[in-house]
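pipeline stage [seq->struct] | target=Serine hydrolase | organism=Actinorhabdospora filicis | residues=371
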Amino acid sequence: MSTPIAGYTAPGYEPVREAFAEALDAEPGNQNAHLAAYAHGRLVADLWNGPDGDALTGLYSVAKGVTALVTALVVQDGRVDLDATVASYWPEFGQKALTVRQLLGHRSGLVGVPEGFTPAQLADDRVLAARLASAEPYWTPGDGYGYHAYVIGALVGEVVLRATGRTVREIYEERVRAPRGLDLFLGLPAREENRFTPMLPALGESGLPPRDSLIAVAFNLHTDPPADIQTFLNSREARAKGPASAGAVGNARGIAGVYAAAIGADGTEPLLRPETVAAFAEPYSTGIDLVTGEDHAFALGFEAQGLRYPGLSRHAFGHSGAAGAQGFADPGLGLAYGYSRSRFHFPPGGGAVENDGFVAALVEAAAREAG
Protein backbone atom coordinates (compact mmCIF):
# COMPACT_ATOMS: atom_id res chain seq x y z
CA MET A 1 0.00 0.00 0.00
CA SER A 2 1.45 3.34 -1.05
CA THR A 3 1.95 6.03 1.57
CA PRO A 4 -0.34 9.05 0.95
CA ILE A 5 1.68 12.12 0.00
CA ALA A 6 0.47 15.71 -0.11
CA GLY A 7 2.06 18.83 -1.52
CA TYR A 8 3.49 20.19 -4.74
CA THR A 9 6.15 19.51 -7.34
CA ALA A 10 6.89 21.80 -10.27
CA PRO A 11 6.64 20.31 -13.77
CA GLY A 12 9.78 18.29 -14.46
CA TYR A 13 10.39 17.57 -10.78
CA GLU A 14 8.10 14.56 -10.57
CA PRO A 15 11.13 12.26 -9.97
CA VAL A 16 11.64 14.03 -6.63
CA ARG A 17 8.10 13.09 -5.63
CA GLU A 18 8.67 9.53 -6.83
CA ALA A 19 11.86 9.22 -4.77
CA PHE A 20 10.02 10.58 -1.73
CA ALA A 21 7.18 8.10 -2.19
CA GLU A 22 9.54 5.15 -2.63
CA ALA A 23 11.45 6.01 0.54
CA LEU A 24 8.27 6.31 2.59
CA ASP A 25 6.92 3.03 1.25
CA ALA A 26 10.19 1.38 2.26
CA GLU A 27 9.95 2.81 5.80
CA PRO A 28 6.31 2.96 6.91
CA GLY A 29 7.33 4.15 10.37
CA ASN A 30 8.81 7.39 8.97
CA GLN A 31 6.15 9.74 10.30
CA ASN A 32 5.77 13.44 9.51
CA ALA A 33 8.42 13.38 6.78
CA HIS A 34 8.70 16.60 4.80
CA LEU A 35 10.85 17.55 1.78
CA ALA A 36 11.21 20.98 0.18
CA ALA A 37 13.54 22.38 -2.46
CA TYR A 38 14.23 25.50 -4.50
CA ALA A 39 15.81 25.56 -7.96
CA HIS A 40 16.25 28.26 -10.58
CA GLY A 41 14.74 30.93 -8.35
CA ARG A 42 11.54 29.22 -7.21
CA LEU A 43 10.07 26.53 -4.99
CA VAL A 44 10.04 23.28 -7.00
CA ALA A 45 9.06 20.74 -4.33
CA ASP A 46 7.10 20.88 -1.09
CA LEU A 47 5.99 17.37 -0.08
CA TRP A 48 4.88 15.72 3.15
CA ASN A 49 3.25 12.56 4.42
CA GLY A 50 1.78 13.79 7.70
CA PRO A 51 -1.68 15.21 8.28
CA ASP A 52 -0.43 18.79 8.21
CA GLY A 53 2.18 20.33 5.94
CA ASP A 54 2.66 23.17 8.43
CA ALA A 55 3.62 20.89 11.32
CA LEU A 56 6.91 21.55 13.11
CA THR A 57 9.32 19.03 14.59
CA GLY A 58 12.81 18.74 16.06
CA LEU A 59 15.62 19.56 13.64
CA TYR A 60 18.47 19.36 16.16
CA SER A 61 21.85 20.22 14.54
CA VAL A 62 20.24 22.01 11.64
CA ALA A 63 20.74 24.77 14.23
CA LYS A 64 24.48 24.62 13.53
CA GLY A 65 23.84 25.70 9.94
CA VAL A 66 21.74 28.62 11.17
CA THR A 67 24.53 29.60 13.57
CA ALA A 68 27.08 29.43 10.75
CA LEU A 69 24.85 31.59 8.53
CA VAL A 70 24.54 34.23 11.25
CA THR A 71 28.29 34.14 11.81
CA ALA A 72 28.86 34.58 8.08
CA LEU A 73 26.62 37.66 8.14
CA VAL A 74 28.53 39.11 11.08
CA VAL A 75 31.86 38.46 9.34
CA GLN A 76 30.46 39.99 6.16
CA ASP A 77 29.49 43.06 8.20
CA GLY A 78 33.08 43.41 9.39
CA ARG A 79 32.21 42.75 13.04
CA VAL A 80 34.24 39.53 13.34
CA ASP A 81 37.58 38.61 11.74
CA LEU A 82 37.97 34.92 10.99
CA ASP A 83 41.69 35.02 11.70
CA ALA A 84 41.44 36.93 14.97
CA THR A 85 41.70 34.93 18.16
CA VAL A 86 38.55 33.93 19.99
CA ALA A 87 40.00 35.51 23.13
CA SER A 88 40.24 38.91 21.42
CA TYR A 89 36.43 39.00 21.52
CA TRP A 90 35.97 36.84 24.62
CA PRO A 91 38.79 37.58 27.10
CA GLU A 92 37.76 34.86 29.55
CA PHE A 93 38.28 32.17 26.90
CA GLY A 94 41.22 30.04 27.99
CA GLN A 95 42.64 28.85 24.67
CA LYS A 96 44.37 32.11 23.81
CA ALA A 97 45.83 31.12 20.43
CA LEU A 98 42.69 29.58 18.93
CA THR A 99 41.27 31.58 16.01
CA VAL A 100 37.64 32.08 15.09
CA ARG A 101 38.30 30.13 11.89
CA GLN A 102 39.65 27.17 13.86
CA LEU A 103 36.70 27.30 16.24
CA LEU A 104 34.23 27.20 13.34
CA GLY A 105 36.14 24.20 11.97
CA HIS A 106 35.51 22.13 15.13
CA ARG A 107 39.19 22.39 16.06
CA SER A 108 39.04 23.76 19.63
CA GLY A 109 39.12 20.38 21.40
CA LEU A 110 36.44 21.69 23.77
CA VAL A 111 33.84 19.04 22.99
CA GLY A 112 32.61 18.71 26.57
CA VAL A 113 33.69 18.48 30.21
CA PRO A 114 34.57 15.40 32.29
CA GLU A 115 31.57 15.76 34.60
CA GLY A 116 29.16 16.33 31.71
CA PHE A 117 26.15 18.63 31.51
CA THR A 118 22.58 18.32 32.74
CA PRO A 119 19.72 18.59 30.20
CA ALA A 120 18.98 22.10 31.51
CA GLN A 121 22.61 23.12 30.95
CA LEU A 122 22.63 21.68 27.44
CA ALA A 123 19.67 23.94 26.64
CA ASP A 124 21.44 27.10 27.86
CA ASP A 125 24.21 28.41 25.59
CA ARG A 126 25.47 31.00 28.08
CA VAL A 127 25.93 28.34 30.76
CA LEU A 128 27.77 26.07 28.31
CA ALA A 129 30.02 28.91 27.16
CA ALA A 130 30.94 29.89 30.71
CA ARG A 131 31.79 26.29 31.62
CA LEU A 132 33.84 25.71 28.47
CA ALA A 133 35.80 28.97 28.68
CA SER A 134 37.99 27.53 31.44
CA ALA A 135 37.77 23.86 30.46
CA GLU A 136 40.71 21.73 29.38
CA PRO A 137 40.60 20.72 25.70
CA TYR A 138 40.57 17.05 24.76
CA TRP A 139 43.30 17.61 22.16
CA THR A 140 45.69 20.42 21.29
CA PRO A 141 43.53 23.24 19.91
CA GLY A 142 44.02 23.65 16.19
CA ASP A 143 45.49 20.17 15.72
CA GLY A 144 42.88 17.97 14.11
CA TYR A 145 39.13 18.34 14.34
CA GLY A 146 36.24 16.60 16.03
CA TYR A 147 32.51 17.13 16.05
CA HIS A 148 31.45 19.53 18.84
CA ALA A 149 27.97 18.03 18.99
CA TYR A 150 26.26 19.96 21.78
CA VAL A 151 28.61 22.92 22.21
CA ILE A 152 29.81 24.49 18.95
CA GLY A 153 26.81 26.84 18.86
CA ALA A 154 27.47 28.04 22.40
CA LEU A 155 31.15 28.68 21.65
CA VAL A 156 30.60 30.46 18.34
CA GLY A 157 27.53 32.20 19.69
CA GLU A 158 29.55 33.71 22.53
CA VAL A 159 31.96 35.22 19.99
CA VAL A 160 29.01 36.68 18.06
CA LEU A 161 27.49 38.05 21.27
CA ARG A 162 30.74 39.64 22.46
CA ALA A 163 31.36 41.21 19.04
CA THR A 164 27.84 42.52 18.38
CA GLY A 165 25.99 42.63 21.69
CA ARG A 166 23.33 40.37 20.20
CA THR A 167 22.76 36.63 20.34
CA VAL A 168 22.72 34.31 17.34
CA ARG A 169 19.00 33.84 17.96
CA GLU A 170 18.30 37.58 17.95
CA ILE A 171 20.26 38.22 14.74
CA TYR A 172 18.72 35.23 13.00
CA GLU A 173 15.20 36.27 13.98
CA GLU A 174 15.70 39.88 12.88
CA ARG A 175 17.64 39.40 9.66
CA VAL A 176 16.63 35.97 8.37
CA ARG A 177 13.57 34.27 9.84
CA ALA A 178 11.01 36.96 10.68
CA PRO A 179 11.23 38.99 7.42
CA ARG A 180 10.49 35.83 5.42
CA GLY A 181 8.13 34.08 7.83
CA LEU A 182 10.29 30.96 7.80
CA ASP A 183 9.33 27.86 9.75
CA LEU A 184 12.76 27.25 11.24
CA PHE A 185 13.09 28.51 14.79
CA LEU A 186 15.88 28.93 17.32
CA GLY A 187 13.59 29.25 20.30
CA LEU A 188 10.03 28.18 19.52
CA PRO A 189 7.53 30.84 20.63
CA ALA A 190 4.71 29.69 22.89
CA ARG A 191 2.20 30.72 20.22
CA GLU A 192 3.66 28.07 17.87
CA GLU A 193 3.64 25.20 20.39
CA ASN A 194 0.40 23.72 19.06
CA ARG A 195 2.19 23.01 15.75
CA PHE A 196 4.97 20.92 17.32
CA THR A 197 4.98 17.19 16.60
CA PRO A 198 6.96 15.25 19.24
CA MET A 199 10.03 13.29 18.28
CA LEU A 200 9.62 9.52 18.06
CA PRO A 201 12.29 6.91 18.87
CA ALA A 202 14.14 5.00 16.18
CA LEU A 203 12.80 1.58 15.24
CA GLY A 204 16.01 -0.08 16.34
CA GLU A 205 18.44 0.05 19.23
CA SER A 206 22.06 1.16 19.38
CA GLY A 207 24.44 0.47 22.22
CA LEU A 208 26.28 3.26 24.02
CA PRO A 209 29.96 3.93 23.26
CA PRO A 210 32.58 3.44 25.99
CA ARG A 211 32.12 6.12 28.65
CA ASP A 212 35.75 7.26 28.36
CA SER A 213 35.56 7.76 24.57
CA LEU A 214 35.54 11.17 22.90
CA ILE A 215 32.23 10.44 21.24
CA ALA A 216 30.68 9.76 24.65
CA VAL A 217 31.98 13.08 25.97
CA ALA A 218 30.87 15.06 22.91
CA PHE A 219 27.36 13.59 22.97
CA ASN A 220 27.16 13.77 26.78
CA LEU A 221 26.81 9.99 27.05
CA HIS A 222 29.42 9.66 29.81
CA THR A 223 27.01 10.94 32.47
CA ASP A 224 24.63 8.99 34.68
CA PRO A 225 22.09 8.87 33.19
CA PRO A 226 23.46 9.57 29.70
CA ALA A 227 21.90 12.34 27.65
CA ASP A 228 18.92 11.28 25.54
CA ILE A 229 19.01 13.18 22.26
CA GLN A 230 15.63 11.82 21.17
CA THR A 231 13.79 13.40 24.10
CA PHE A 232 15.89 16.60 24.18
CA LEU A 233 13.58 18.64 21.95
CA ASN A 234 10.48 17.04 23.41
CA SER A 235 11.27 19.31 26.37
CA ARG A 236 9.53 22.68 26.25
CA GLU A 237 12.56 24.23 27.98
CA ALA A 238 14.93 23.19 25.18
CA ARG A 239 12.46 24.23 22.45
CA ALA A 240 11.91 27.61 24.10
CA LYS A 241 15.61 28.39 24.54
CA GLY A 242 16.67 27.12 21.11
CA PRO A 243 20.33 26.29 21.81
CA ALA A 244 22.47 27.10 18.80
CA SER A 245 24.03 23.64 18.48
CA ALA A 246 21.08 21.26 18.62
CA GLY A 247 17.95 23.30 19.33
CA ALA A 248 16.38 23.97 15.93
CA VAL A 249 12.65 23.37 15.52
CA GLY A 250 10.83 23.66 12.20
CA ASN A 251 10.17 21.78 8.99
CA ALA A 252 11.71 21.12 5.60
CA ARG A 253 10.08 24.18 4.06
CA GLY A 254 11.77 26.33 6.68
CA ILE A 255 15.15 24.67 6.17
CA ALA A 256 15.03 25.09 2.41
CA GLY A 257 13.84 28.67 2.85
CA VAL A 258 16.82 29.58 5.01
CA TYR A 259 19.32 28.20 2.51
CA ALA A 260 17.43 29.71 -0.42
CA ALA A 261 17.66 33.11 1.27
CA ALA A 262 21.39 32.63 1.85
CA ILE A 263 22.18 32.33 -1.87
CA GLY A 264 19.10 33.84 -3.54
CA ALA A 265 17.73 30.49 -4.74
CA ASP A 266 14.25 31.84 -4.02
CA GLY A 267 14.67 34.66 -6.53
CA THR A 268 15.47 37.31 -3.91
CA GLU A 269 18.68 39.21 -3.21
CA PRO A 270 21.04 36.73 -1.52
CA LEU A 271 21.97 37.32 2.10
CA LEU A 272 25.57 36.28 1.47
CA ARG A 273 27.91 37.88 -1.03
CA PRO A 274 29.91 35.52 -3.28
CA GLU A 275 33.14 36.18 -1.40
CA THR A 276 31.43 35.32 1.91
CA VAL A 277 30.12 32.07 0.45
CA ALA A 278 33.60 31.26 -0.84
CA ALA A 279 35.12 31.81 2.60
CA PHE A 280 32.53 29.81 4.54
CA ALA A 281 31.85 26.99 2.08
CA GLU A 282 35.42 25.92 1.26
CA PRO A 283 36.16 22.54 2.92
CA TYR A 284 38.40 23.25 5.90
CA SER A 285 38.42 20.29 8.31
CA THR A 286 38.61 17.01 6.42
CA GLY A 287 39.78 13.46 7.05
CA ILE A 288 39.09 11.38 10.14
CA ASP A 289 36.98 13.10 12.79
CA LEU A 290 38.63 12.64 16.20
CA VAL A 291 35.24 12.35 17.91
CA THR A 292 33.21 10.14 15.60
CA GLY A 293 36.07 8.25 13.97
CA GLU A 294 34.42 8.84 10.60
CA ASP A 295 35.77 10.40 7.42
CA HIS A 296 33.85 13.67 7.39
CA ALA A 297 34.25 17.21 6.09
CA PHE A 298 33.44 20.61 7.56
CA ALA A 299 33.68 24.02 6.01
CA LEU A 300 33.39 26.95 8.46
CA GLY A 301 30.51 26.04 10.73
CA PHE A 302 28.76 24.23 7.90
CA GLU A 303 29.16 20.67 6.75
CA ALA A 304 30.84 20.51 3.33
CA GLN A 305 27.85 18.98 1.57
CA GLY A 306 29.52 19.14 -1.82
CA LEU A 307 31.83 16.36 -0.63
CA ARG A 308 28.93 14.30 0.71
CA TYR A 309 26.44 14.17 -2.16
CA PRO A 310 27.58 13.30 -5.71
CA GLY A 311 26.35 15.85 -8.20
CA LEU A 312 26.56 18.87 -5.92
CA SER A 313 29.19 21.51 -6.54
CA ARG A 314 32.28 21.73 -4.32
CA HIS A 315 30.96 24.73 -2.42
CA ALA A 316 27.58 23.31 -1.43
CA PHE A 317 27.15 24.00 2.28
CA GLY A 318 24.63 23.12 4.97
CA HIS A 319 24.04 20.97 8.03
CA SER A 320 22.20 17.81 8.97
CA GLY A 321 20.27 17.04 12.16
CA ALA A 322 20.27 14.04 14.49
CA ALA A 323 16.84 12.65 13.65
CA GLY A 324 17.69 12.53 9.93
CA ALA A 325 17.04 16.12 8.89
CA GLN A 326 19.17 17.69 6.19
CA GLY A 327 19.61 21.10 4.59
CA PHE A 328 21.97 22.79 2.18
CA ALA A 329 22.52 25.47 -0.40
CA ASP A 330 24.43 24.86 -3.61
CA PRO A 331 25.46 28.23 -5.07
CA GLY A 332 26.98 26.57 -8.13
CA LEU A 333 23.72 24.87 -9.10
CA GLY A 334 21.35 27.43 -7.58
CA LEU A 335 19.69 24.83 -5.33
CA ALA A 336 18.39 24.93 -1.77
CA TYR A 337 17.12 21.82 -0.01
CA GLY A 338 15.46 20.81 3.23
CA TYR A 339 14.26 17.54 4.74
CA SER A 340 12.76 16.80 8.15
CA ARG A 341 11.20 13.84 9.96
CA SER A 342 9.80 13.19 13.43
CA ARG A 343 10.84 9.54 13.67
CA PHE A 344 14.54 9.15 14.47
CA HIS A 345 16.15 7.16 11.69
CA PHE A 346 18.19 4.02 12.28
CA PRO A 347 21.10 3.65 12.43
CA PRO A 348 21.46 7.04 14.17
CA GLY A 349 23.42 9.95 12.78
CA GLY A 350 22.84 13.20 10.96
CA GLY A 351 21.16 13.15 7.57
CA ALA A 352 19.06 10.02 7.03
CA VAL A 353 20.07 7.74 4.16
CA GLU A 354 16.97 8.56 2.09
CA ASN A 355 18.42 12.03 1.50
CA ASP A 356 20.84 10.42 -0.98
CA GLY A 357 18.02 9.50 -3.35
CA PHE A 358 16.14 12.77 -2.86
CA VAL A 359 19.21 14.89 -3.60
CA ALA A 360 20.11 12.83 -6.67
CA ALA A 361 16.59 13.23 -8.07
CA LEU A 362 16.64 16.98 -7.40
CA VAL A 363 20.03 17.50 -9.04
CA GLU A 364 19.00 15.53 -12.13
CA ALA A 365 15.69 17.37 -12.48
CA ALA A 366 17.35 20.76 -12.09
CA ALA A 367 19.98 19.83 -14.68
CA ARG A 368 17.30 18.77 -17.17
CA GLU A 369 15.49 22.05 -16.68
CA ALA A 370 18.69 24.02 -17.20
CA GLY A 371 19.28 22.13 -20.45
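stage status: PASS
auto-comment: The chain has a mean pLDDT of 95. Residues 9 and 45 are 4 Å apart (CA to CA).
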